[in-house]
Structure formats: structure tokens, C-alpha cells
Specification:
The chain contains 11 helices and 9 strands. It is α+β, with helices and mostly antiparallel strands. It has a 5-stranded antiparallel β-sheet with strand order 1-2-3-5-4. A hairpin with a 2-residue loop joins strand 7 and strand 8. Helix 5 runs parallel beside helix 9, helix 7 packs across helix 9 and helix 9 runs antiparallel to helix 11. The longest helix has 27 residues.
Length: about 325
């Protein structure tokens, strides 16, 4: 039941049967149409209460069997819900999962979760006066939250892909090679990261896309962490480096998501039990993050060109590949 005309009926039956009658669905609207999931927002009547909810549904991946993108982490449906519920038990702020869809619900894969009010657009979080106080404390909040994520037991989630730094570099190299789109700067970047990939690291559950733009933020700071689709088992420092990639600063002046300082992030992470942070180690993941986002931009543009996800937005993101590549070269320049 992916058709909008069928969805209200299916949701009404689902709500009435599993949360309580009458199950009336109001204000149904699709919030996103990304490459990995579709998010629907609506209000449900259960008894005398109106509950704000979201429906998260995975989008099928149209990839060839030999496509190297199949080796990327991909958490969806029931696994996504299990990870979010596990994060909640670990003290990570996430939306409450109300129910996981079953085959008899006739709505496909996915889950229902509470809709949390707040801002998700990174540029607004950086600029809007409403979030002035939040900006002052969010770097420390990020450190505390990441420490809790990295303390989650990986063995509890056997569906997670395990990739160390060298394996992740190799996958993205193979993806870039598959595009047959040679660029000397990208080739240089891949050689640089391949030579410096950390070999002995702590093994932990990694969020994979922990950044400004994947938080729900209020005046008091981070209310929820979203988008666990590329969570995996790997080097926890990858999350700290990704958070500091310049793209996710949205024009903000500070290195941590545009809103905060590295010292606050690291101090809060270590104090919350995340372990000692080596600045050089994080710096590698920040540099690789720039390269990775450059390739991911190309992935989105190529998806449009190859007919996978026909979207002008995806095509426009594809044209931005050179921006994070410039950031990578700038980082190398500062390192001498």
C-alpha cells in the first residue's frame, strides 16, 4: 500500500486495531522522498486523544547485483525500528517507536513513531535566534549522545554490517570507479586516505550519519537523533569526524556542526565514558568524510541519470560533488 489513495485507509485500520479505535487519520502529508526511506506525518485519533505520529517506510533499492553500493550499510524497516528502540534504552534521545508493521497490516515494511516538534534544517539551526541558547550547548550534547551510542552492544544487532576504515575506503573507491568519471583530485584523495586508514581501533556501534541536519532541535538543544539507515559496526571516531565535516556546518562559523567547538565535543564525550579521543584520529575521519560526501553526491546524481531515483533534487546534489572535494584539499593544505 504505497499509493497515497490507499494509505489513509490502511493507516486507519492499523491504528484502530493496534493502538485503539477509532483510528481516524488526519493531516497526512509526505515529509521526505529520499533514496532510502519515505516519511509520512499525520495525526491519529485513539480514544479521546490525538497522537502526532510519523510512518517510516524503506524505499526499495534499484541496484544491479554486482553494484558495489550493495556493500554499504543499509538499515531499514524492522531492523531500523530495533536500532531506534535500542538507542532509546541506551539513553539516546530518539522518537518513541509505537509499533513495527507486520505482514498482515498490508502496509509493507516500516514502523510508526511519535512525531517530535522542532527544527531539522541545519541552516535554520545555525542562524535562527530561537536556537541561540541551543547552539551554545549542542557540541557537549553531541559528545554525551555519541558516548551513549558507542556504548550500545553491537552483538544485539546482528543485521549490522561491520566495516573498519580500510574496508569503508575500499567500498567507496569501488563505487567511484564504477561511475567511470575520473578526476585526478579524487584519485589523490583516495590514495591519501588508503595510506592513512587507522588499523587498530576500538570496535563500536557507529551511527554513520550523526550530523547537523539529522537532529530535531528545540530551544533547549537536541530533542532527537534521526536517520540511522547507515549505522554499522566500526570505528567510533568516524562519528566525531563526520560531525565536523564542513558541509554539515551550513555556513556556521564553528567546526562542530557549525554551532560548537571541538573542545566541548571531546570533553563531553570523554566525561560521558566514550573513551579518550585522539585528535589526529578524528582528523582522518573528517578528511575521509569530505571525500566520502563527494562520492555520495556523485551517487545521488548518478542515481538520477541511471533512472534509479528520478529527482531534480538528487541531480542538484550530484553537481555539488566538488565542494567537499575542495574541503578535503583545504584540510590537506592546512596539514602541510
Amino acid at each position: 500500500m504505497s499509493d497515497l489513495l490507499d494509505l489513509p485507509t490502511g493507516l486507519r485500520r492499523l491504528i484502530a486495531a493496534r493502538l485503539g479505535p477509532p483510528g481516524t487519520v488526519e493531516n497526512l502529508v509526505r515529509l521526505t522522498g529520499g533514496a532510502t526511506r519515505a516519511t509520512w506525518s499525520f495525526d491519529a485519533r485513539v480514544g479521546d486523544a490525538t497522537i502526532p505520529l510519523v510512518l517510516q517506510q524503506p524505499v526499495p533499492r534499484a541496484l544491479r547485483p554486482d553494484d558495489p553500493m550493495l556493500r554499504l550499510p543499509h538499515v531499514a524497516g524492522e531492523a531500523d525500528a530495533a536500532l531506534v528502540m535500542g538507542a532509546a534504552r541506551a539513553g539516546v534521545p530518539v522518537p518513541r517507536v509505537r509499533l513495527v508493521l507486520e505482514p498482515e497490516d498490508d502496509l509493507g515494511a516500516g514502523y510508526l513513531a511519535d512525531r517530535i516538534d522542532g527544527e531539522t534544517l541545519g541552516a535554520r539551526i545555525i542562524r535562527d535566534q530561537r536556537f541561540a541558547h541551543a547552539r551554545g550547548i549542542m557540541a557537549a550534547q553531541c559528545g554525551e549522545i555519541l558516548a551513549r551510542i558507542h556504548a550500545m552492544e553491537p552483538e544485539a544487532y546482528p543485521f549490522l554490517v561491520e566495516q573498519d576504515a580500510a574496508a569503508e575506503v575500499q567500498v567507496y573507491r569501488e563505487i567511484w570507479d564504477s561511475f567511470d568519471h575520473p578526476q585526478p583530485a579524487i584519485d589523490l584523495a583516495f590514495r591519501w586516505v588508503a595510506e592513512r586508514a587507522p588499523k587498530r581501533t576500538r570496535r563500536a556501534l557507529v551511527h554513520g550519519d550523526f550530523r547537523n541536519g539529522n537532529f530535531i532541535v528545540g530551544a533547549e538543544g537536541i530533542r532527537a537523533v534521526l536517520d540511522w539507515e547507515i549505522a554499522h559496526v566500526g570505528d567510533p571516531m568516524a562519528d566525531l569526524g563526520w560531525l565536523c565535516v564542513r558541509t554539515w556546518r551550513f555556513g556556521g562559523p564553528n567546526p562542530v556542526g557549525g554551532f560548537g567547538h571541538r573542545e566541548d565535543l571531546v570533553a563531553a564525550y570523554e566525561q560521558a565514558g566514550g573513551g579518550r579521543v585522539d585528535a589526529e584520529h578524528v582528523s582522518f575521519w573528517e578528511a575521509f568524510g569530505c571525500l566520502k560526501w563527494s562520492v555520495m553526491c556523485l551517487m545521488k546524481g548518478q542515481s538520477h541519470r541511471r533512472g534509479g531515483l528520478r529527482s531534480l533534487e538528487q541531480m542538484a546534489i550530484g553537481r555539488r560533488s566538488e565542494e567537499p572535494l575542495y574541503d578535503f584539499l583545504a584540510l590537506l593544505g592546512r596539514r602541510g
